[in-house]
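Hey team,

Filing this mostly as a record. A colleague (T.K.) asked me to run one chain through the structure pipeline before their review meeting, and I want the input and output archived in the tracker in case anyone asks later how it was produced. No errors, nothing strange. Just documentation.

Input sequence:
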Amino acid sequence: MAQFAKPENALKRAEELINVGQKQAALQALHDLITSKRYRAWQKTLEKIMFKYVELCVDMRRGRFAKDGLIQYRIVCQQVNVSSLEEVIKHFMQLSTERAEQARSQAQALEDALDVEDLEADKRPEDLMLSYVSGEKGKDRSDRELVTPWFKFLWETYRTVLEILRNNSKLEALYAMTAHRAFQFCKQYKRTTEFRRLCEIIRNHLANLNKYRDQRDRPDLTAPESLQLYLDTRVEQLKIATDLALWQEAFRSVEDIHGLMTMVKKSPKPSLMVVYYAKLTEIFWVADSHLYHAYAWLKLFTLQKSYNKNLTQKDLQLIASSVLLAALSVTPYDHKHGASHLELENEKERNLRMASLIGFTPDPKRENRELLSRTALLSELASKGVMTCVSQEVKDLYNLLEHEFLPLDLASKVQPLLTKISKLGGKLSSASSVPEVQLSQYIPALEKLTTLRVLQQVSQVYQSMKIEMLSKMIPFFEFSVVEKISVDAVKYNFFAVKVDHRKGAVIFGNEDIESDKVSVHLAVLADSLNKARILMYPPIKKQSKLGDSLYGLADIVDKEHKRLLARKSIIEKRKEEHERQMLEMEREEESKRLKQQKITEEAERKRLATESTRREEQRIRREIEERELQEAQALLLESEKRNKKKKRTVLEGDKVTKQTLIELALSEQLKERQEMEKKLQKLAKTMDYMERAKREEEAPLIDQAFQQRLVEEKILHEHEQLKEIELSRQHHAGDLQEKNRLSRMLDNKIIFQERIVSHREAEYSRLKKEREDRINQVVASRKREREIRRKLYFYLKSEEERLIKQREEEEARKREEAERKKREEAERKAKLDEIAEKQRQRERELEEKERQRREALLGGRTPDSPTRPAELVRPSEPVPAPAAAAAAAAAPASSSSGKYVPRHLRERGGAGASAANPPEPERSDRWPRTEDRPPPQSNERWGRSDDRRPSFGGGSRLPSSSSTWSSSRRG
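Output structure:
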């Protein structure tokens, strides 16, 4: 990086490099100077450097260098001299435009020359070969080689300048001027793609302006000048969009203007609003939105009539006629019949949006369907005085189509009026902002409206009509077109008509019993018949009349009401089912469409990314090759200029390759370097000889001059020393005189000094004492504060320890209480388990004793003399004393011990008991006596499973033994 002491040096160096053909080096030198931090103060030289810099950038098509340099220059002169930046940018754009125009003219001249060179041959042989090889025509090839690079550079220039000037309050005018020039570039060369990108760039700049509100030097949109510049830019954008037939971009421009007006909340100038509504009329007419087109014409008429005082009567009549014809062109029926709830909501939102764009404020109390409608528009035209300004032909047409009922003659009377209206129109005067009005554009829509009116009026008079007669009544269209128009009107319930081609007739009306027309006739007929019946049979009494008329009416009304409710519920269910199915179908179609769109966008994005990557690689490769070729040519030219040789014819395009140029340039450099080394060696030897001879000659002269200088300096030294001694003596004498003069004041000086010192010592002592007292007070107060804080800390700490100790004691108490409860619960559970175990042990002992007793009873009985079981003893008989005593002794022993008794001990105890209590002696008879048997009720009572009472004998239960004995007897 070259460093220059002054900017002028860099400019001179750049001009020298340009003169020798090294433009790249000159551009780099200027770029280093501009981007350096040393030269951040603006001066006139920097402006000259920037002019030269942008010239080099344009000449070499280096847009990136130009952008970097302009950004740095904006930083330098933004706060000091903004006009300098404007001049540089204007010069930059002017150069780019001139080079693009020059390339275009060169391409045109080349094409003209190719066309005129040989008048007999269609194409030259080389052109034919080139077309077969490249597949391109001569003009396309010349445009691609000459025009396209410069147009790309011009477009890049506009983008660079807009990016540099964006969102800066000091550069608003230049930004608007650049945007206008970019719009004109897109319009002049029909660059639709670049125009869309330019609109998006400007839209993003405004969005960033609203997003980053704390930006430095941010434009204030509330200022009238700034708002006017931004609105003028958007209006110019709207004009160019309509001129290029980019209607979607034009509508987005309209939304931008409306959003800007909404954001600032200020009404723009009427002249600007006239252009706004004029372009809206074109957009809505192209979009077939005749209703919004008519409303836009109404706003345009209101503005022209209110603010344009120079408007002629003829121009006002043409505009008013356009307004009325636009309103008549709207179809006389809406599209809400049969629409779903979702479509109605979308239409509602669309109406609100369009109303805000056109400038109508919606009334929340009114229905939105009444806000923008044909009926409301026609009534508003009458109220605002439009009817008084229209021409007579248009007024007659309006009366015929809207107020007259002529089913047979309507079309024949409308046709001559349409012929006259089609001839009206033309260019308006210069006082109007609308350039031209043509009423002939409304003729097709008016013919369609006439057809609809004829069909509507005929359907009210006739039930059927021949197709030939109807075709004669409507001379505008063929019957196929009339049929299409009628199908659309029937679809939206404007009238009812059927076409029977087999009979060649058109049937009007709907013969359904539930149609509106038939139901009205039936109601009228019913009223007439009722009146006739009353006249024929007048009522005698009021009572009888009520009785006759109300006889059975309640049942009929009830049945009819139920039937209607059922029918209504069925219709509602069908409607809901149909809407649900339609919504599902729409949802599925939307999901499929979105999925397909996503796949298509992804494929397109991948293709564009691959294509852009390939193009970028090709561009980089081509730039590298061009740069290497230019460098090689520059080296070769430089070497030839230095050698002062005649320029060689090596730069002939494709005959010389890049490698050849590089090798040739390197060989030339090598030769030049060798010759330079030889010259330097010869020159060094010559300089050595000359230097040696010069020193031999000047040695005695230098010695002589040195001796002479020593003598002169010695004389000068002595003279200066004498002069200094004399001055010192004079100074000493003067000082002695001054001392003698001031010595008489010495006593007064000492007295004054002592008084000052004593006064200052007293003051110092007082201040020192005050300071010590103040320090002692501060120390004492701080000591008291420390003591208070220490006591407070001690109190808080002791209180905290007490609370912690209390909480720990409480927790320990709770833990001990819980453990005690657990122990008590465990002891209680153990006691319950022990009692249960004892109970089970006693039951087992009783069962064992009973089993042993049963075995003993069964084992001691013989077939001849069966022993009577003890269970059959009646309760009234006394129990033997030995057995009762043994049982009583066994029971307390088993219950009082409370310990587990092993089975062998229980068996041993049972055997002893049975031995101690021998069985009762057997009875002599086999069967017991009747009086000895137990009664049945006692057996039933004893046979209950829940009877736990002990038996009389050995503790066994009577029911078990009784059932056992009975079963053994049966067996």
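Quick notes for T.K.: The first helix runs from residue 7 to 19. Residues 571 and 577 are 10 Å apart (CA to CA).
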